[in-house]
């Protein structure tokens, strides 16, 4: 770690865990609530294979606040009742962070996501990779995600994705 | 060929579910279809824009190395050393002007010629490097779309495509001058036929999002283009007006030059599906992994003449509209799985929508008709040698 600020590190870890908790609870408004209330708030999910070859296309490309809000609508309204649901468990580990300016930080973390389809009950790995995050710190010191790129080592998904990774 | 017994119903609109799940049938499909007299799209030239660019792909297990040589010519090789058959290239894509097999250090140039091998004096008397280029399957190219066939008997590609040519050319932006945006890759837990049966075809009631695209009226045209049952869809596509549930409407914005036919789909036997919806150009390279698994590489493209704004628009639309997490397609992916589970029950899958007479095959259909798949099933039945019941 570049920083020795343990309270900052604890706050970043709390943000990571809050996002994992929201996703594993299928709490899409809660997921949205982890993002900064700014037009530029963004979530991307794409394979590291695409990134390494300069290809920007993703599995999910929510590059503005409106698209994040639409992602909630996809899951909660548009797709409701059409898919085999599955549980997820996100395991997240902070690997580095640094301060960019007074209100902005960058952090990296590893993730692995297990999934358990409700019908089969068999648990398997859905994806592994790393989160590349930009974090906004407000005047009160509260941290929110300004942008997150879930970069998947898993270039071939074992299943369609309903929820963000 | 091995004789496989499967009782096929008299009616054209019935497909025995056993065909989707029996492993002996799958083994025979690999021989008769994937290694047989069919052309299989495996890449588009625009995935290899520069000399030395390559991509690897496995077609029903057969490893292929698709590359552009140093002079810019596209070539397809078997991805196996001409010596002992070791897999030559392990990367999924990249740029190389030479390929070296690490096993005995045989070195091949981008034209597939063997240009180096250590200690040839220890080889068979008369050994000549010129006799050991990389082996090649037959391949041909249509507006940049690279097809492979593993049989010497397959008819020429244009004949194979038949009346699907025009729709496919228009889908490839009219000139095939595409620019790769990236991939979404996924495995579905389903038999390859369940995938192709349900990918190009749209079940309008499944998709809430179709309301936004005025796609529930079934007004478009669907037709089969050859005796193989290749299917083409051409549909007007207008985004519904009025209040939208989407806050970012750019996801379903249509900026393209083809407004009369906003949606085109070409589905070629056995597994290829390609679509142009709104401003998304999507080629789906699919291959069976086994009887119960199919792997699909969704490749998305812009056009070479697009300005920066249009490329960005296509990127934003492509990422979120189609594929295994797309607004209008995620439910398809789930149906692939559920159909495969349901196919482990007795009896036949029965097609209804658009079927006028179960004893006749038609070739013109409405956009949302299920019956468009039936000519392909009849071709499949004949290739597999299954006898249709007379009563």
TrEMBL record, chain B:
Transmembrane segments: none annotated. Pfam families: Rieske, Ring_hydroxyl_A. Gene3D superfamilies: Naphthalene 1,2-dioxygenase Alpha Subunit, Chain A, domain 1, Rieske [2Fe-2S] iron-sulphur domain. Residues 39-148 form the Rieske domain. Belongs to the bacterial ring-hydroxylating dioxygenase alpha subunit family. It comes from Hyphomonas oceanitis SCH89. GO terms for molecular function: 2 iron, 2 sulfur cluster binding; dioxygenase activity; iron ion binding. This is Rieske (2Fe-2S) domain-containing protein. Keywords: 2Fe-2S, Dioxygenase, Iron, Iron-sulfur, Metal-binding, NAD, Oxidoreductase.
